[in-house]
Amino acid sequence: LDRKVRQNIWEENNFINYKKMSENLAIVRSRLNRPLTFAEKILYSHLDDPEGQEIERGVSYLRLRPDRVACQDATAQMAILQFMSAGMPSVANPTTVHCDHLIEAQVGGVKDLERAVNINKEVYDFLASACAKYNIGFWKPGSGIIHQILLENYAFPGGLLIGTDSHTPNAGGLGMAAIGVGGADAVDVMANLPWELKAPKVIGVKLTGQMSGWTAPKDIILKVAGILTVKGGTGAIVEYHGPGVETLSTTGAATICNMGAEIGATTSVFAFNQNMEAYLKATKRSDIAEYARSYAHELHEDKGAEYDQLIEINLSELEPHINGPFTPDLATPISKFSEAVKANGWPEELKVGLIGSCTNSSYEDMSRGASIARDALSHGLKAKSAFVVTPGSEQIRATIARDGQLQTFEEFGGVVLANACGPCIGQWDRRDVKKGEANSILSSYNRNFTGRNDGNPATHSFVTSPDLVVAMSIAGSMHFNPLTDKLKDKDGNEFMLQAPTGDALPNKGYDPGQDTYQAPPKDRNTVDVKVSPTSDRLQVLKPFNAWDGKDAEDLPILIKCQGKTTTDHISMAGPWLKYRGHLDNISNNMLIGAINAANGEANKVKNVTTGDFDAVPAVARDYKAKGIRWVVIGDWNYGEGSSREHAALEPRHLGGLAIITRSFARIHETNLKKQGMLPLTFSDPADYDKINPDDKVDLKCTELAVGKPFTMNVHPKDGKPFEIKLSHTFNEAQIEWFKNGSALNTMAKANK
Ligand code: F3S
Q1: ipTM of this complex prediction, to 2 decimal places
Q2: What is the pTM of this model?
Q3: Phi-psi region of 99 (alpha: psi -120 to 50; beta: other; left: phi over 0)
Q4: How many angstroms does the Cα of residue 652 sit away from the middle of ligand 1?
Q5: What residue ranges of the chain are covered by domains with CATH 3.30.499.10?
């Protein structure tokens, strides 16, 4: 059983270690003494310390050792820049980067890709050279969407992966616990820090029966989203089990896991089964299939495993669903959809049908979709709506080009876009409707928030299976139900579409298409990382300074924030995202959304050295130039929202020392610690009110010790100084981060 099986065909020295995983599980099992869910088995087999780790679902924080890291090109920039600042020669854990998010859809695949390569040249050059330097696999623009590439190449049953993109859970279709994280977490694992995750609860979804006709795997998750809503999966892993699971292809299961992100789930998983074996074989990984078979007993839930919540779905009774508009949990079965369109006044014409994306680009999806399009063509019909196809990977594109589905879509009137995210992430130069014009679009994607696809808040975006997208594009109407409604052929004769058919895997095997992978070279010493010093999109990061060993005195309060201060208030998105690889430029958005308690306004604070009011980043820069460190006072749950690491990097970059709040959102609190800042809370939250924005404070940094309060002396502008007690959650290791200037500095030191 103790074999050396490679994780994938690309990397020679990274192996799957089921033996070690199994040993870890034996330790945990002897401690917990109860049956485990499959999700738990994956996580606990990756514990940093299986003997000592506290394990209580929904309570403890697990320290884990993931097998892999994956980043998409937008989030990879800052992650790699940070990693570089640690000065390590290569990543400590297997890592890949995927160019998929920055390609705009305009006219079609080849041209769009060419244009993107020009526009984003400096970003791609940087990523390609940094990947070569630090031993990271690099998937060039045109290779496909991160989650498809992971499924086709890197996912394996029982593995644990973190990825800097919300739909990373896609790999759960192949039995991997794949979790979407922020860049800071990715950097930790690249630098060999254990990765922390609150022990998730486990929601079981038991599938029985078998799908038929127009029902597709997508309908399972559309139904689950309707039941659980966009918040229902928070803090939980969704585990699919039951006899119905065997009836689903691996790619169909991946679709379901992918869209689990829409219910807020940590991830979703399917236990190892024979369809996974078939998929592994079809994607050149027979050895993994065999190895997994020999460990099959560890790759599914234990008998009697208990779920925190259980949902049952009978696939034989499941109807096709359409979810939306504007939210992915508004689920309507197709039989009720026409009524719903009328009742809600949703635009009745279907303007654009879009299939593909990371969610639904499998060979099965494409074959089923093409079977419907073929049916229509045989009756002399094409798509009435505009019709768009985004293949999920070069491999899928090449395979459906060889097998004819692609030509069918083109004959049907479709435009085939580049193998990339395109319209799914708003990279869509849409011309057929004006901004503000109400219209309906239907896609096989996963997210349909307002404006996501085309930046038009009046676009009603619905998500469904690729089958329904194709069928309804023929009718061009949101009222059409292919299960019950007739169409008219070119001669005016009525007919009904036949239910779709398609193969889960290509009979002739996959065609890999063009070679789009760049392996790290053998000799990496001579590689130069390409960052132009004049670039406004990229900037090399210098390691932050270590703590000077002294208490800090007379610090001004940059801003006393009042009310909600989310990571969006601290580091806004939108146009700022262009600068996500340039810390100094993006720092011009620091805290510009936070409300100043002194005047109730955003982005207007007093510079205590001049008495003038100015923008928050401008005042911070002035303090920094004058060698003055500063603090921020925050309200409740400071830093809630997305895990954006820029929200912690920016205050550190502009000279902040401490963020003192009534309470923190945990991820942001940890991110601040990682960057060498002091996240502190008022031991008595009422003390927040005692602080005046004009006060100055002293921080007794030398007092920082595990579990001990921290003293802050407050010097009011007029009035007597007083003392306040602050609390913190630093542990021993994190105190080292503060002392060394950051977690990365600490890792770099340990590696030297
Ligand atoms: Fe890309 Fe959309 Fe998936 S942005 S990763 S295709 S959800």
Answers
A1: 0.98
A2: 0.92
A3: beta
A4: 31
A5: 319-482
